Amino acid sequence: MATPAAGGTLPTPEEQSPPAPSHNVAVFFHGFFKVVSIVWYWICTIVSDSFVVNFVVCIVLLALDFWTTKNITGRLLVGLRWWNEANDTGSAWRFETLPEGVRTILPREKRFFWLAILLAAGHWILACVFCLFGASSYIIVAIMGLVFNGSNLWGYFKCSREAQADLQGYINSTSNSIVQGAIKQKLSQAASRV
């Protein structure tokens, strides 16, 4: 039982609540499978001359990353979940966000989650571009990496109202600065003619 400090009062239950638990194992595996699949993609021809072996290992690593991100780290690190339901009439995407106050999300874990997803998707876009210019013959692996990582990025983006609001704010500020720049340019051109 806590005793009040001299001349003080007992802390309220909100003040006594323990800090939110960190999910170090989830953070590790969220980054690990992304890094390992990317590294394997670039060094696989050094390790093995067999396209089949390299393809299978890379796809398995990408699948492990996809599954871990979709089913574990999304829920633990950012409180988001998405899935696709298929039935006789077609399929539908479902998006779920933990309500405020159900669980505290640590800002560093949230930043790491989004940064890792964005960097991995960006890598696979660049890998596809490199393949198109002949830098690698593994274009099917790069496309699969983009599909797996792009699906997670799209699913979690659709779940996160905060990410959507951030993107909308960025688009608004960028478009405003472009419009303001164009107006300033037109005004300076008009003033120079006078």
Automatic annotation (TrEMBL):
The membrane topology of this protein is: Multi-pass membrane protein
Keywords, alphabetical: Golgi apparatus, Membrane, Transmembrane, Transmembrane helix
Q: Where in the cell is it found?
A: Golgi apparatus membrane; Membrane
Chief subcellular location equals Golgi
The superkingdom listed in its UniProt entry is Eukaryota
Q: Which residues form a coiled coil?
A: none
One Pfam family name is: DUF846
Q: Name one GO biological process term.
A: vesicle-mediated transport
Q: Does the keyword Ribonucleoprotein apply?
A: no
Q: Name one GO cellular component term.
A: Golgi membrane
Could you list the residue ranges that cross the membrane?
Answer: 39-67, 112-132, 138-157
**What is the stated purpose of this protein?**
Golgi membrane protein involved in vesicular trafficking.
**Sequence similarity:** Belongs to the TVP23 family.
Q: What is this protein called?
A: Golgi apparatus membrane protein TVP23
Which organism is this entry from?
Answer: Volvox carteri f. nagariensis
Provide the organism lineage as a comma list: Eukaryota, Viridiplantae, Chlorophyta, core chlorophytes, Chlorophyceae
